[in-house]
Design goal:
This protein is of the alpha+beta class. It has 3 domains: 226 residues, no CATH class; 50 residues; 54 residues, no CATH class. It contains 14 helices and 12 strands. Strands 5, 6, 7 and 8 form a 4-stranded antiparallel sheet that branches. The protein has a 3-stranded antiparallel sheet with strand order 2-1-12. α3 crosses α5, α3 runs parallel beside α9 and α6 runs antiparallel to α9.
C-alpha cells in the first residue's frame, strides 16, 4: 500500500485532488515513525486558515462592467458560476488560493473551448521586455503541448517569501516542545511506588514465578483499573509516596495549552488573520472578520481583479469602461432584519439601489423598475439642490 505523509494528505484534499484513503495501520505506522509529529496543531491551524481565506474569496462576487455599466455576460458567468465543465466556482477558487499559499504562485489558463483551469504545475521563463512564457503546463492530469505567454493567462504570486515553508519549520519546533510537555505530563501522572521484598520471600522456591506474575499481571491490572485492590504474597510490601498530583500535572497541562495557543497565533499572524478566528472565539468574530477581509482577502482579490482586467479587457477595453472588480462585501453574512438601519442608510445616500441591497442580503432582487433606481433623501442633498428647493434658481 502506498505511503503518504499526513501533511500531504491534507494538502491534497484542500487542493481539490482525489481523496487519499489512509488505513489505520498506515496512520499508526506514521506516528510510530515520526514520534515528534504527534501534535499537528500548527498544521491544522494552517489548513484552517487557508481554507477560511479560500472560502471567503469564493464568496466574493466578480463584478464585470461593460462601458462603465455592470454587465452579466459570459465573463460574469465564468467567474461566478462555471469556470469550467468540472468545477464550481468554490472548488475552482479553493484550488487557486491553495496554490497561492502552498506554491507561492498560481496560474489560470484558458482552453480553446473557453474553459478556465488552474494549473497543477508549470515552468516559467521570465523576460525583460517580452512576455514571460509558461511551458509544461499541467492541469487536471493533462499536460498541454503548447506554451502560454503571460498575456494569455491569469498569473498571481503571493509573496516573495515562502510562508508555508517557513511555517513548516516552525511546526516542527512547536511539535517537539509539545511532545516534551506531554512526556512530562505522562511522567507526572504515572504510578510511582516502592516494592519491598524480605529475605524469606526470596528464598521461596517459587519466588521467580510469583515475582513475574506480580510484575507482569497483577501490577498491570492494578495500574490500568480505575478502582482496584492489589493482593500481595507474604513477604511483599508495596507503597506509593504521597504527592500532590493535581499541582504537578496542572503545570504540564498549562504548558501544552500555552504552546498550542502560541502555535496558532504564529500561524495566524504569518497569514495576516486574527488568531481568534482559528480558535473560534465567538465574542470577537465580528471584528475579526473585518480584519480577515482587509488583511488577507483584499490582498488576493484586488490583484486578482486587476489581473483579469489587464488580461481579459486590456487598456483599450479599460478606456471604454470594461473592467472586473472583486466585491468583498459579500464575504460577511448580512441579515436583513438586524441590518435594516444600515441598509436604509445605504439606500438613502445612493450607495445602493433597493435591488442591490436585496442581493447583498442573499435575496432575489426585485424586477420592479423602482427597485433598480437610486434614491437620495433631503438629508444628503447637495447645496445647489437645497437652494433650488428654497426658492433659489429654478
Amino acid at each position: 500500500m502506498r505511503k503518504i505523509n499526513i501533511f500531504e494528505h491534507l494538502k491534497n484534499k484542500l487542493l481539490g485532488k482525489k481523496e487519499v484513503i489512509l488505513s489505520s495501520e498506515e496512520i499508526e505506522g506514521y506516528f510510530r515513525k515520526y514520534e515528534t509529529s504527534k501534535f499537528l496543531i500548527t498544521e491544522i491551524a494552517l489548513f484552517t486558515a487557508i481554507d477560511l481565506i479560500a472560502r471567503s474569496v469564493a464568496k466574493c462576487e466578480f463584478v464585470t462592467a461593460k462601458e462603465g455599466k455592470e454587465c452579466r455576460g459570459a465573463e460574469y458567468y465564468a467567474w461566478n458560476y462555471a469556470p469550467n465543465k468540472h468545477q464550481t466556482k468554490g472548488e475552482f477558487i479553493a484550488e487557486f488560493v491553495a496554490n497561492l499559499f502552498f506554491k507561492n504562485e498560481a496560474l489560470i489558463i484558458e482552453t480553446v473551448d473557453g474553459q478556465r483551469l488552474v494549473a497543477d504545475s508549470f515552468s516559467k521563463k521570465e523576460y525583460a521586455i517580452y512576455d514571460d512564457v509558461f511551458s509544461n503546463v499541467k492541469a487536471r492530469g493533462y499536460t498541454f503541448n503548447k506554451n502560454f505567454t503571460s498575456s494569455e493567462v491569469i498569473y498571481l504570486k503571493y509573496s516573495n517569501v515562502g510562508v508555508v515553508k517557513i511555517l513548516s519549520s516552525l511546526c516542527k519546533s512547536y511539535e517537539k516542545l509539545m511532545n516534551s510537555a506531554e512526556k512530562r505530563y505522562n511522567k507526572a501522572i504515572g504510578h510511582k511506588g516502592v516494592l519491598k521484598i524480605d529475605a524469606m520471600a526470596t528464598n521461596d522456591p517459587e519466588f521467580q514465578k510469583k515475582f513475574n506474575e506480580l510484575m507482569n499481571e497483577r501490577f498491570k491490572e492494578y495500574f490500568n483499573a480505575q478502582d482496584a485492590v492489589l493482593p500481595l504474597y507474604d513477604g511483599y510490601d508495596y507503597s506509593e509516596p504521597t504527592l500532590d498530583a493535581s499541582k504537578t500535572t496542572q503545570s504540564e497541562i498549562n504548558d501544552i495549552q500555552k504552546l498550542k495557543s502560541e502555535a496558532i497565533d504564529s500561524v495566524a499572524n504569518a497569514i495576516h488573520i486574527p488568531p481568534s478566528i482559528i480558535k473560534g472565539e465567538a465574542s470577537q468574530l465580528s471584528d475579526a472578520f473585518d480584519v480577515l477581509i482587509a488583511n488577507a482577502v483584499d490582498t488576493i482579490t484586488r490583484p486578482f481583479g486587476q489581473e483579469i482586467t489587464k488580461k481579459v479587457y486590456g487598456f483599450d477595453g479599460f478606456k471604454k469602461g470594461d473592467y472586473c472588480i472583486v466585491d468583498t462585501t459579500t464575504v460577511k453574512h448580512i441579515d436583513v432584519i438586524t441590518s435594516a438601519t444600515n441598509i436604509d442608510k445605504a439606500i438613502a445616500c445612493r450607495v445602493l439601489t433597493p435591488a442591490k441591497a436585496q442581493a447583498y442580503c442573499n435575496m432575489l432582487p426585485s424586477d420592479d423598475e423602482s427597485a433598480k433606481s437610486y434614491y437620495l433623501t433631503k438629508n444628503y442633498q447637495t447645496a445647489d439642490m437645497a437652494l433650488k428647493g428654497e426658492g433659489g434658481e429654478k
